[in-house]
Amino acid sequence: MLKGLIFDLDGVLTDSAKFHLAAWNNLAQELGIKLTSVQLDSLRGISRMDSLNLILKYGKQESKYTETQKEEFAAEKNEKFLEQVETMTPADILPGITALLADAKKAGLTMCIASASKNAPKILSKLGIASQFDQIVNPALLKRGKPDPEIYQKAQQLLQLHNDEVISFEDAAAGVAAIKAAHQFAVGIGDKQILKGADYIVKSTKELKLDQIVAVFKKNNKKVG
Q1: Is residue 197 packed enough to be buried (19+ CB in 10 Å), middle (13-18) or exposed (0-12)?
Q2: Residue ranges for the binding site?
Q3: What residues does the record give for site: Important for catalytic activity and assists the phosphoryl transfer reaction to Asp8 by balancing charge and orienting the reacting groups (predicted)?
C-alpha cells in the first residue's frame, strides 16, 4: 500500500539544476576544462564533490589539486549558485508539481526530499513549499552519493516506511539507478532512453498525475507480490 513519496529536488520540483550546471560550467572554464553537453549533463543529481572530481577527471586534472584546493573550488561554485537561488520564487516551481503535492496531501501521503544538494532547505523555503515535506535527508550525513541507494534508503527510514510503500521521483539516470538499487518504485522525468530503468516515465513534470502513477504502482506491486 502506498504511504509516502520521495522527491529529488533539482529538475524535479524546480529547475535549479540549470543554475548548478551553469556554475559548474563556469568553474570548469576557469580551470581550462571544456565540457561537452553530455559531460555537463552527467553532473545532474550527484554531490558537490563528486561533481567536481568528475569535472577534473574529464579535464585529466585529477591529481593537479589538493583536497583543500578542491574544497575552495566547490565553495566558489556554491557561492555563485546561491546568488541565483536568492532570485527564486514560487513561480519557479515546475508545472504540475503544485497539483501533485496537493493531491498527495489529500491522500494522506507523507513526503521526503532526497537531494544531493545541501541547499535543499533554502530552495524549498524560496519556493514556498517547505511545509509540504515531512522530512529532508541531510546529504552531509551520507557516506555515498547517487547512484548508490543510501540517500533513498535514508529517506524511506525517515518516513518509517518499507520499500514497497513509497514512490520516488527523479530526473537523472544516477538517481533512477539509486531508487532501483533501494528496491523502490521509480518515476523518471525526462528522456525515456536515459531514464529507461524507471518504472514510470514522463517527458515533463506537467504530465505527473498522482492517480495514474498510483495505478501503475499498484499493478507493479501485484506482479512482485
Answers
A1: middle
A2: 8-10, 24, 43-48, 51, 77, 115-119, 146, 170-171
A3: 115, 146
What whole-number distance in Å separates Cα of residue 156 and Cα of residue 215? 21
CA distance linking residue 196 with residue 177, whole number of Å? 10
Annotated binding site for substrate, which residues?
8-10, 24, 43-48, 51, 77, 115-119, 146
For residue range 27-72, list pLDDT tens digits in order: 999 999 999 999 998 898 788 899 999 999 999 999 999 999 999 9
The H helix count followed by the E strand count for the chain is 9, 6
For each of the domains in the chain, give its residue range(s) and CATH number, in order of start: 4-15+90-222 (3.40.50.1000), 16-87 (1.10.150.240)
Instruction: Report the relative pairing of strands 110-113 and 200-202 from DSSP bridges.
Output: unpaired
C-alpha cell at 80: 555563485
- What's the chain's Rg over C-alpha atoms? 17
Whose cell is 540517500? That residue is 151
